[in-house]
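### Sample
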Amino acid sequence: MREFINLTLGGVITGAVYAAFALALVLIWRSTRIVNFAQGAMAAITTFIALSLIESGQSYWVGLAVALLAGLVLGAVVERLVIRPVEGGPELNAVIVTLGLFIAIQALISVLFGVNQRAFVAPFSTIGFRVGDSSLALSPNTLFTLGAVLLVMVGLTALFRYTRVGLAMRASAFGQEVARLLGVRVGRMLTLGWALAAVVGSLAGMLIAAEVTFVTPTYMDALIVFGFVAAVLGGLDSPVGAVVGGLLLGLLLSYVRGYVGDELVGLAALAVLVVVLLVRPGGLFSTTQTRRA
């Protein structure tokens, strides 16, 4: 029973990490209809910028603020200079560009910050709470991670459902010509979508770094895969789905790792992706209108 409780708590924690990255993918998809495979590398470089500040004596919160600001600028610059030339063309072009961008940014991280492991200190204690003689796989830092993910989910849901900016972003993503006729400045909305997605990605990078405690230029690689599966599982058009998908995937992989073996975790994630694409391609929280769009 103790093992099951710890596996469940570990799955929730890991799922929250997947959900944090999935939220960034959902935001970029809802605002531009592009799956950004460079999101992990963009998050990693802003995390390394924050880590450099922290190592120089600044607080974690200063590093976090700078990482979010760097993500905002990076997202806007990437959309303007790299994505804008291929927007409106075949969808595969944008996907290939983001893959190339992923490789380029990861190489840039290695050049600027080196390839060695670097310790990342979490903002709160990572020691699990104790219940009697047992230590739970739940700590103050994981509560911070869960709270941050839920806050972002609520914020994104409110943005797209209840604000004119969110409606304009969605209109720009679904039909640029119609949106322009309605007075929407499509170019600005696409840039804003990339900028906000990069901010969420930067937050995810900081949260993930605090959980894994050591970072390298490639520390986000596995999270890219699992975060994408979580986003597809919940629905690429749903912030709530991204969180639920992340938590469900985290629980499943935790049980597989604990009861079957670590070597089957990747296969289990692949099985989830295949089943979802075959049974419910739009994800658990999709709607008929969303799938047809």
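The domain at 2-292 is CATH 1.10.3470 (ABC transporter involved in vitamin B12 uptake, BtuC). This sample (Branched-chain amino acid transport system permease protein) is used throughout the tutorial notebook.
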